[in-house]
Structures are given as structure tokens and as C-alpha cells.
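Retro notes, structure queue

What went well: the backlog is down to a handful. What didn't: a couple of records were mislabeled last round, so from now on we paste the full input next to the output in the thread. Example, using ABC-2 type transport system ATP-binding protein from Paenibacillus pabuli:
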Amino acid sequence: MTYIARTIGVTKTYAGAEVVSNVNMSIKQGEIYGFLGPNGAGKTTMMKMLTNLVKPTVGEIELFGEKLTPTSYELLKRMGSIIEYPFFYDNLSAKENLDLHCEYMGFHNKKVINDMMESVGLKDTGKKPVRDFSLGMKQRLGIARALITTPELLILDEPINGLDPVGIKEMRDLFKRLSSQYRITLLISSHILGEIEQVADTVGVIRNGRLVEEVSMDSIRGSHSEYIELQTLDPRKATYVMEHQLGLKNYKMIDDHTVRIYDPGIAPSELTGKLIGHGVEIESIFKRAHSLEEHFMSLMKGDGDVA
Ligand SMILES: Nc1ncnc2c1ncn2[C@@H]1O[C@H](COP(=O)(O)OP(=O)(O)OP(=O)(O)O)[C@@H](O)[C@H]1O
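Corresponding output:
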């Protein structure tokens, strides 16, 4: 597995208080990594450590397979980031802002500016000053600026914050395009599951400074499918019938009255028929989906199964 960025036991302490605790994050080359957590969980602090703006108190960071040190300028050149709100010259156009940035960075391939404006959908903004841009346009201009040096890894802190639904959709499409067309690895933070869920290949959930889960969206979709929830006064008899009459093995006793059946091939009506036929009294039976939302919300709030 090729990791573009890894953190190894990273902890950050401010005035004796741990705001990030022993975080092991692994970001794979080419993926969109969604970094999910409530406000104050430690997302920005982690991103600042990954970009060398803040030094970990304990632990190590690896970028592109090499250890990050205070003088890793070559490694930092291979990444782009927007961590704090991007500053622009409000009276100048998008292109003029990008021109200035190139000069400031000593980057002379200005041809790339038009390409980048096109890739973020700002090609037709002409002389319009940035002052008259929507928040979404400013965010996309920030991304264009971060892309000018053609980074391999792009780190964006809450890029969707404050955008309207159209802006959110444009941003989501942009992330997908950057990933598929330009093969850029993206690390995107958010406190809103819906934003992350739709774009991320891997999700890392942080709460109170701890990474409580890091999982691929594919695997989590597979493991959080539908189940049947059965309530009965006689769960022992019910599970006996389930096992011996229907061959069901993938079930779980939730409490004295409740059984959850995860076997995919059984319909509630079939199960009901068999149970009643064998004298099992059913209080209720229904099909449920343990949604991704329930799963992640319980992790973020801290009432889930924490790793
Ligand atoms: N320079 C600092 N000095 C002291 N405490 C800090 C500093 N920077 C961050 N913190 C604290 O660290 C904790 C994590 O903050 P951080 O900004 O990383 O969280 P976050 O997940 O990005 O949340 P948000 O989305 O609200 O920015 C917070 O309690 C914050 O007050």
C-alpha cells in the first residue's frame, strides 16, 4: 500500500491540555480522505501539523514516504492547502490574484493559470473583482491558487462550510474531478457527514482529539446494510426456529425481547410465517437499515463502539 501521508502516534498539547491524542492516520495515494469530526475535535490542528504550521508535541509525520522535519521544504512543495480562510485582493480579478500569487511564489509558468481557472469553473469571470464573488467562487479561487504548483496532495479545511446547495454540488464535483482527472490526493475536513459521505473513499472520524475510526466507505457500506428486527417474548424459541427451520446463523440478541437478523436472503413475511407456524408469539417485526448516519453520529457523539 502506498501512503501519501501518515501520522504515527501524533499528539499535540497546548498549555498542558491534549487537543490531539496519539493519532495514527493513513492517507492513501489517489484517494479522497474525508476527515470528519465535530467542531473543536482537532481537525484543523491535525492539518496544521501535516503542513508544518504546527509541530507535534509527540509523534511523527511522514509525507510521500519521508519524515517531515522543520526543514522539509521539498516535501511541502509537493502539497497545497487551504487551512485558514484564503486571503485575496478584493479589488483585483481572479486572474490578477493568481498572477500576483505566481510572482510572489517565484513561479513562472503562468500558462497554468488559465488551466486552473478552467478546472475550478472560474474561466469566465473576466474582470469581475473578487469582492463581488460568492463564497463558493472564493473557495474555488482558493483551490485554484493551491493547485497552481500542481500539488500531489491537497489539504482543505472545511471547504464546504457556508456554501449554499449549488456551491456544495460544484465543490463536490470539483473534488471528484481533481481526484479522477488530475490524480490529486485530497484530504478534506468537515463536521457534516453528508458532505464527506458523498465524496470520500476513506473516512477518518476524530472526536476529542482521538481518531475513533478510519475506514473505507466501501467496507462500511457493506457492513451497514439492512436487517430485520424481531421483538418477541420468547427469543430463545425464535432463534431455535430460525436456526433449525430456516438455517439462519447471522443474528444478534439485542436484549431480552429483541433479535436482529442480518442474513440477507430472508424476507420478514417468510420469517413471520415460520415463527407463527412454530408457535412463537411475535410482538413486532420490521426491516431496518442501520444507516451510515447512525453509525457516524454515534461515533462523533461518543456513544458508539470506539476503537
Ligand atoms: N493555538 C492554540 N492554543 C490553544 N488551544 C488551541 C490552539 N489551537 C487549537 N486549540 C484548541 O484545540 C482544540 C481543537 O481545535 P481545532 O481547531 O483543531 O478543532 P477543529 O476540529 O478543527 O474544530 P473547528 O471545526 O471548530 O475548527 C480546540 O479545543 C481548540 O480550542
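Agreed that this is the format going forward. Reviewer comment attached to the example: DSSP finds eleven helices and 15 strands in the chain.
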